[in-house]
Design a protein that fits this description.
By secondary structure, this protein is an alpha+beta fold. The protein has 11 helices and 5 strands; from the N terminus they run αββαααβββααααααα. The radius of gyration is 49 Å and the shape is rod-shaped.
């Protein structure tokens, strides 16, 4: 009798040790573990379950496990318990509730066990809060990258359109301004006029590489030889009567040329003084100080018959 009792005590100690080992293993698991009876009551949990639901073991054990699940998801859990057969499992994502009614996503796995006189369910719960947060951040990052891609694509299209426009503008300038000017230079016998055309061509070639910053300048290439001479005279500060006298043409002819010049330079209908425009830049290679000197000399010689254009060296007054 004594030996038999001792042997039973030996097995009892072994069972107690096994129970302690089981609890130790459950607490080492990174997910929450719940043992549920057939009537849905919680009989045992591990420490991680308390952490996930931010509650104590005393408050959780004995609860109906469905009290930890949000109202909209309780039906799914009921169906899982009802339809499971022995040693079958079910898994899904549900919304759980902490003690402060804070809802959070969980991944839950349910396993059914039928023992000799008892049915148990084992629930393994994983908190998906961090996973969902990272997933949302990833989604936002993908959306941001997609938007950046669309923006860059649109920018590339805009750059391509701008490049195409620049190429078209260069081709147009070469075809409508530079090539005709070259033909004028080939036909021109007067060195002074040729040099004027060459100066304008030089400015235009420079502008082709600087983004067309001087749109107006190229229009001077459209002027005829006579119109360019009149522009030089205007830049020197000569009045229309003085230009007519110097070039041996009528006052009305000078006025007609001035109107054509304003039209070709895009000044028609605009309150821009032609002399002011010509003096704003060193057109025709006449510096401001030299033009001022000519105007002063012209003032001193006023009343004399001297041709004002002859005050500039190598200025050709012969008409086309």
């Amino acid at each position: 009798m004594t030996d038999h009792t001792a042997q039973n005590n030996k097995y009892t100690l072994t069972f107690d040790s096994f129970e302690q080992l089981l609890h130790s293993l459950l607490n080492d698991i990174g997910d929450g573990v719940f043992f549920i009876t057939y009537d849905m009551k919680i009989t045992e949990i591990n420490d991680r379950a308390c952490e996930i639901f931010e509650n104590s073991r005393k408050n959780i054990v004995g609860l109906d496990c469905r009290e930890l699940i949000a109202a909209g998801h309780k039906r799914r859990l009921n169906e899982a318990f009802r339809n499971l057969k022995d040693f079958e499992g079910w898994a899904g994502e549900l919304t759980a509730i902490r003690k402060d009614q804070d809802q959070f996503p969980i991944d839950i796995t349910v396993k059914k066990f039928s023992l000799t006189n008892r049915t148990l369910f084992c629930l393994v719960v994983k908190d998906l809060t961090e996973y969902k947060t990272l997933k949302e951040l990833l989604r936002q990052e993908k959306t941001h990258r997609r938007e950046m891609y669309v923006t860059l694509k649109n920018l590339m299209r805009a750059f391509e359109k701008e490049r195409s426009g620049i190429e078209t503008g260069i081709s147009h300038r070469i075809e409508t301004l530079l090539l005709p000017t070259i033909e004028k230079i080939k036909r021109e016998s007067t060195a002074d006029v040729r040099n004027t055309y060459l100066d304008l061509m030089r400015d235009q070639l420079i502008n082709l590489t600087s983004g067309f910053s001087k749109e107006l300048d190229g229009r001077f290439l459209r002027l005829t030889r006579t119109e360019m001479k009149i522009c030089k005279s205007i830049q020197l500060g000569l009045a229309s009567k003085e230009i007519a006298q110097a070039m041996n043409i009528s006052f009305e002819t000078v006025q007609a040329h001035r109107r054509n010049i304003r039209k070709k330079l895009g000044l028609r209908g605009r309150k821009i003084n032609l002399h002011t425009l010509l003096m704003s830049k060193s057109f025709f290679g006449i510096p401001e100080d030299q033009a001022s000197g000519v105007r002063e000399q012209r003032t001193e010689d006023r009343g004399q018959r001297t041709n004002p254009l002859l005050l500039l060296p190598s200025f050709e007054t012969t008409l086309e």
